[in-house]
Amino acid sequence: MVNDLNLIPGPTPRFLLGNALDFVGTSSHIKLYEYNREYGDIMRFWLFNQANILINDPTLIEQVLVSDRDLYYKNAPRKAAKPVMGDSLFLSNDKDWEFKRNNHPFSVAQLDKYFEQILPIIRETTKNYLEQLQPSTTPKPVEFFSELVKLSFQIFGLTILGSVTNSGYFDAFSMMMEEMDKRGGQQFLPYPLSLNPKFWLQRQQWNNFIEDRIHQSQKNFKEKGVDLLSSIVQDTALSTAQLRDELSTTFTAGTRNVAEAVAAVLFLCSKDSEAMQKLKSEITLFLAEHNNEIYQEDISLLRYLDLVVKEALRLYPAVPLFIREVLPGKVAILRNYKIPEKTQIFISSWALHHNPKYWENPDAFMPERFAGSPSPFHYFPFGAGPRQCIGMAFTIFCTKVMLMTILSQYSLELEPDTSFDTKYFSGTIMPRQGFKIQLKKNQ
Ligand code: HEM
Predict the structure, then answer these.
(1) Residue 9: per-residue pLDDT
(2) Following DSSP, what letter does each residue of 309-356 receive, concatenated?
(3) Is the pLDDT of residue 186 over 50?
(4) pLDDT digit string (tens) for 360-416?
(5) Which pick of 121, 260, 361, 422 has the fewest CB atoms within 10 Å?
(6) Are 55 and 47 in contact (CB under 8 A)?
């Protein structure tokens, strides 16, 4: 088939390896950013015999995610993630995707009511977790990112499944994330089935736990809990296995991302004393005026909190890249280039969010830049188009409530050597050296 791959700018491929060596020792999102700087709006690279195109232009991104979306499907993430995520929405295509999207618990639940119910749980869980971590007014050094991951996992357990999640479940979850990372989270290479029997055992225990929760919810549907599972269990069109995979995927697709979003805001504001002061004052004043009682509709009234969360997700989009593939038998046209079937298309929010063509002073933390609304294809931490993140509203809500709770009770100071240099792990970013702070409870 005639194609224009060789006409598209990109690095010279090596025999057999293609450009795979470019990714050794450099995180994928950083490499894509460097490619963008060097080769512009559309570029080509090879991973062994796999052709890949990286697009860095809002119009092209719109084309792939919306106008021409029927030419593409999700393939690469399936290889890496299916043994961990199961057969869930995140990895599905076509009619199967449509069914799962329309029947996903977040599509079926009445979100306003659900958020109202889980707000006190997020607040209480955050408060109790921090009280145990740092009960004193004397500053204590902590690696806060890993603590936020554990906290977020507890919150997900209570708000999604209506269950306390003990450390055994956290270990099983952590092992699944490690496995997903090894399978392709790093360099998108196919990875053979795990030979580690512990992974299969942990995965089984995890699945049993979720199925058990589903059965209990079905049995006790009259005593409706406040969690997502109880709110939809009677109305769902999904089978138990489908529901299990969707609920499980909320953990694998969401827990670390929420922790990353909270950590990014705390890091950026800790480096900018004026921003921290402004954010804390807004939160403190709001809680004082509302007698420390907050309702879900109040959250959007905190204007500065909204701006800092948006700006943190611009600078540190938790999912910095995602992939489509040209369907077998199809040819896509991007900027007049003919792109043959099975070519992978990379879209990087990280590269676009840091591109000086679209953002003034792109590396600076300037929350006020979000006073207006950017185009969805310039700013897309949650993806864009019909496959935009289904957990977006939950994530933003949860992140804001966690931040309000933390900042109304604690002060943070960065350890002198703390940076937020990120690495790519299992489809998401995390601070490479951890997020080291001094945590101090307010008087
Ligand atoms: C900071 C937090 C998060 C970020 C940055 C994020 C980002 C994304 C992105 C970029 C996509 C699009 C992927 C693509 O188009 O290929 C996506 C899809 C998805 N996300 Fe999230 N996500 C976050 C949190 C969550 C949470 C908390 C959940 C579940 C509770 C979740 C569940 C999903 C699912 C199921 C999809 C697939 C939707 C579909 O294909 O129809 N995400 N997310």
Answers:
(1) 98
(2) HHHHHHHS-SS--EEEEEPTT--EEETTEEE-TT-EEEE-HHHHHT-T
(3) no
(4) 999 999 999 999 888 889 999 999 999 999 999 999 999 999 999 999 999 999 999
(5) 361
(6) no
Taking the centre of ligand 1 as the mean of its atom positions, its distance from the CA of residue 189, in whole angstroms, is: 21
CA 20 from centre of chain: 25
Whose Cα sits closest to atom 18 in ligand 1? 389
User: Ligand 1 centre and the CA of 273: distance in Å?
Assistant: 31
Q: 3-state secondary structure string, 351-376? A: HHHCCCCCCCCCCCCCHHHHHCCCCC
Q: Are the C-beta atoms of residues 227 and 161 closer than 8 Å to each other? A: yes
Task: Examine the pLDDT at 359 and tell me if it is beyond 70.
Answer: yes
**Which of 159, 249, 255, 389 has the most ligand 1 atoms within 8 A of CB, as the residue to mutate?**
389
Q: Which CATH superfamily is domain 5-441 in?
A: Cytochrome P450 (1.10.630.10)
Nearest one of 105, 68, 88 to 241, comparing CA atoms: 88
* Cut 0.85: pTM above it: yes
* Residue 104 CA, closest ligand 1 atom number: 35
Indicate which atom in ligand 1 lies nearest the CA of residue 100. 41
Encode pLDDT of 237-257 as tens digits: 999 999 999 999 999 999 999
| pLDDT exceeds cutoff 80 at 188 | no
In this prediction, residues 18-22 reach a mean pLDDT of 96
pLDDT digits (tens, 9 = 90+) for 280-312: 999 999 999 999 999 999 999 999 999 999 999
Q: Which atom of ligand 1 is nearest to the CA of 323?
A: 16
Cα(438) to centroid(ligand 1), Å = 31
| pLDDT reported for residue 169 | 95
Domain coordinates in residue numbering, the chain? 5-441
Contacts of 397 (CB under 8 A, 6+ apart): 115, 296, 299
User: Ligand 1 centroid vs 249 CA: distance in angstroms?
Assistant: 10
- Expressed in angstroms and rounded, the spacing between residue 199 Cα and the centre of ligand 1 is 24
Residues with CB under 6 A from ligand 1: 89-90, 101, 249-250, 253-254, 257-258, 261, 317-319, 322, 381-383, 387, 389-391, 394-395
Token pair recorded at residue 86: 């199961």
At 189-222, the pLDDT tens digits run 455 567 788 989 999 999 999 999 999 999 988 7
Nearest residue to 238 via CA among 114, 116, 109? 109
Cα angle for residues 419, 421, 423 (degrees, 5° grid) = 145
Closest ligand 1 atom, CA of 381?
5
Protein residue closest via CA to atom 3 of ligand 1:
257
Phi, psi of 239 (to 5 degrees): -75, 170
